[in-house]
Amino acid sequence: MTTDTPHATAGRPAATAALTAAIGARFERLPLCRWHVTVRLIIGAVTFFEAFDQLLIAYALPELRAEWQLTTGQTTSLITVGSLGMLVGALLSGRLADRVGRVKVIAACIALSSVFNLLLTLCASPGPFMALRFVQGLAIGGEVPVAATFIAEITRAHRRGRFVLLYELVFPAGLTACALLAWWLMPLLGWRWMFGLAAVPGVLCLLVARYVPESPRWLADHGRHEAALATMASIEAKVEKITGEPLPRPASAPSAPSVPSAPSAPSAPSAPSAPSAPSALSVPSVASAPRQTARQSAGRGGLRELLSGRYRRRTLVVSVLWFTGYFVNYGISTWLPTIYGARFHLGLSDALLYSTVTSCAGFVGCLAVALTVDRVGRRHTLAWSLGAAALCLLLLGLFSGGSAGGVLIWTSLAAVFFFGANICLYLYTPELFPTRVRALGTSVGGAMNRLGVILGPIVVGAVYADGALGTVFVTLAAVALVGSLTAGVAAEETSGRQLEDVAP
């Protein structure tokens, strides 16, 4: 018998805890293959276009400002209202994904975002535009952390950093594609066509619903034993068919499989069951099963668990890192086209081109982190990347803010580092929390991300309104330094460790 509310009490059935651990062990034996790549591409396409939608407002802003005669305050509101929606969406989606599943939330978010892109093309004044942008923000903010959670849950510990971050590259790729298309199409077609084109990817919700399985880790944790086993067996069968080789025995499996509803000790040794039989299960070893069961049964779930015990510090650390990283990122990227136009009198095309160069530099930084994070480690990557970004911005603020070329060079160098740090957070945060609150924990980070996205442009706008461009970059350098010190002093290393070991 299954239940949809396995955390109604303080603990969970021993069978659920054992099954959750066994599912993790079975994922560890799966070689990375075409099945992983296919799922990553589908979810990645969704995330790509959510990133496109997120940044599109920055490149539409010069036209909107001219068309609707916006003041600086109205311009700031137009930027931040979507981010406010993303903050609320991040918090709601994490809780929802922990209750109803990862895949349903991902599919719903891309559908909602696309519908509201179409509605935005009909707006003739700032009021309706901001209202629609807020609702669209709920979907954009909701999809990204849930997708990161899902990808982490289907990936084994070995080289997880590279696999997950090569998927996460689709987000900065979406930002870069938005910049390139905006530079090319915005002067030709206008902002309405850009939002209309951004609605087309809504058809991806059908691909997600049809081809992406629900996370077996989530199914097992929620007491849906038969569905978890059937889904896991289906994945294993597909991997075996693709690789043409039988899968090795799970590392933590005992000599005999046991039925998930029977938490008793394993029976006499026997041959392992074929992965296509959904009723078969390899449970943790005799020595490890009681330990893992006890640890997992102690979990309470929900925000209360995130703010207690070992997870309190982790929640606080990732909250600071998400906030500082995205405060700097969007404080810069949102205002760059406007700064180039208003301060340095560049035309729209040139202003967008300069901003695009900075986005492309950030993408290079993301790729570098994806290829090195498993060797360097999560903590060192975050600390050194944010520290280097702080140094670049400080030098810009003190010595090079007087020319468009100086701003271009130093913001591009800084983007290499803060883009790299920010993409690492999409890998690092899901690793820190157990399955029962993984999406919520990641979404809390996403909410702090959105808070930074909101406050960064507001602070930059307030400082820039006084004409103090150098002070803008010094302020951003100080924020990046706070993030660097937090990572260096308080972050835990998770490289090469199974999810159930990092967060029981």
Q: Can you walk through the features of this model?
A:
The protein has 504 residues and is mainly α. Helix content is 75%, strand content 0%. It is built from 21 helices and no strands. It has helices at 14-28, 34-67, 72-100, 102-120, 126-153, 160-168, 170-189, 191-197, 204-211, 216-221, 225-243, 288-297, 302-306, 310-333, 336-342, 348-376, 378-400, 404-431, 435-465, 469-490, 499-502.
**Classification by helices and strands:** mainly alpha
Order of helices and strands, N to C? HHHHHHHHHHHHHHHHHHHHH
Put simply, the count of helices is: 21
DSSP strand tally:
0
What is the straight-line distance between the termini? 24 Å
Arithmetic mean pLDDT: 82
Strand % is under 5%
Radius of gyration: 23 Å
Overall outline: globular
The share of residues in helices is over 70%
Low-confidence stretches: 1-10, 253-299
Major beta sheet summary? none
Short structural description:
The chain has 504 residues and is mainly alpha-helical.
Key structural traits:
disordered N terminus, globular, 75% helix, mainly alpha, 504 residues, single chain
Please specify the SSE layout and strand pairing.
Blueprint: H1 14-28, H2 34-67, H3 72-100, H4 102-120, H5 126-153, H6 160-168, H7 170-189, H8 191-197, H9 204-211, H10 216-221, H11 225-243, H12 288-297, H13 302-306, H14 310-333, H15 336-342, H16 348-376, H17 378-400, H18 404-431, H19 435-465, H20 469-490, H21 499-502
